[in-house]
Amino acid sequence: MKEVDYFQIDELLSEEQLMIRNTVREFVNKEIRPVIDEAAQQHKDIPGLMQKLGAIGALGPYIPQEYGGAGLDQLSYGLIMQELEAGDSAVRSAASVQSSLVMFPIYTYGSEEQKRKFLPKLATGELIGSFGLTEPNHGSDPGAMETRLSKDGDGYILTGAKMWITNAPVCDLAVVWARDEEGKVKGIIVERGMNGFTTPETHNKWSLRASKTGELIFEDVRIPQANILPDVSSMKGPLSCLNSARYGISWGVIGAAVDCYQTALRYSLERQQFGKPVASYQLQQKKLAEFLTEITKAQLLSWRLGVLKNEGKATPQQISMAKRNNVNMALQIARESRQMLGAMGIVGEFPIMRHMMNLESVITYEGTHDIHLLITGQDITGISAF
Length: 386
Ligand code: TGC
Ligand code: FAD
Hints:
Strand 4 (about 175-180) and strand 5 form a beta hairpin. The chain starts with 14 loop residues before the first helix and ends in a 5-residue tail after the last helix. By secondary structure, it is α+β, with helices and mostly antiparallel strands. Helix content is about 50%, strand content about 15%. 3-thiaglutaryl-CoA (TGC) binds near residues 133, 134, 141, 234 and 365.
């Protein structure tokens, strides 16, 4: 991927941030692009992906170094997500779940012992984590969760099920959210091998085919006190994790959009119809001009959000707006740019159709397009329309 920087946003980034972006871009060119089409076509993992992401510091980039993270700022995190998603949303998903949905809650709400035990191994990819919030009966309304945590002697019993969970079939541990007997929402570290814990895979997806998705099933799983996150007891816990992941997605999808835009630009300059390059026709130029305009607006939104996040000032509602706008932008660009390739747009030699299908999940997970609109509506009016 070359740079698309119409408004000279690079000038707003530090040398270190630019270097991090280039390192991840090289990684994607070397390790992801050569294998991603086959992985997606075959519905297979990319071999050793998590360890490779760990080796370039893409797992827990903003977690402090003393716990194995890279200790980077939020703009660097965003740029890493952007480069990974230019390769494939499945690769960004792997890194964002591990970073924002597994390492973040353990770092933010975990005990010192939990942090020391899990974070360094999650940072290297030696351990793979997943995040269980969505349930079969509760997706957009996770506050109505049915998964239960009940006291049992010196520990607890966990009962229930989570569905549509990224990396569930391959995870070593899952950060799971359940209500206790007092109705409080608790975060629990469930480890593979605990009796009654199973993770069946969800097959035949048309989207995110290079990522494993599955269920987390808890049949009276005994949980020791040591696996309960001590510093969280409300929906603010899981929703704060989503803030971090949604922010990363707002950057990530810019990468997918740029990959589609550049593919369509190259193709339309080379492809001749009626004796001229397809790019010479006004209808095609309109598409390209609008792609670049929308990408530039999305870049400015995410950059500013990153600055606000670095200053501790970004609100969940600002994050919702950026996630919603940027994912929709990327999906529209994927759909339109696919058409610009004609029939070639449907084959795996070009990345566009794969991005388009992935983005159909990205516009649904981490809060659907419509839910984020309602969050903005609530912020404007003070009235919840959920
Ligand atoms: P509501 O009553 O509004 O709020 C409950 C409490 O939570 C607080 N809160 C937040 N806190 C931090 N960050 C946020 N974003 C927050 N949003 C709300 C709120 O202030 C309140 O606190 P308190 O102290 O007053 O109790 O909750 P609600 O039940 O009405 O629902 C709100 C809603 C719809 C916004 C929320 O539930 C929501 O975001 N729904 C969408 C669900 C979702 O995004 N699920 C994602 C699952 S994980 C996933 O998709 C991973 S994909 C990973 C990948 O592969 O990349
Ligand atoms: P529903 O909530 O049933 O919504 C169905 C439709 O109704 C949507 O269009 C929605 O916008 C609309 N709707 C719902 N409520 C309202 C309302 N009040 N007003 C107007 N419209 C409304 N979850 C996790 O916990 N962890 C993961 O790792 C994870 N990974 C995922 C990976 C993939 C590939 C996918 C596809 C999903 C993943 N999810 C994960 C689940 C994801 O977060 C949910 O799918 C999402 O939150 C939506 O929930 P739902 O699918 O149950 O849709």
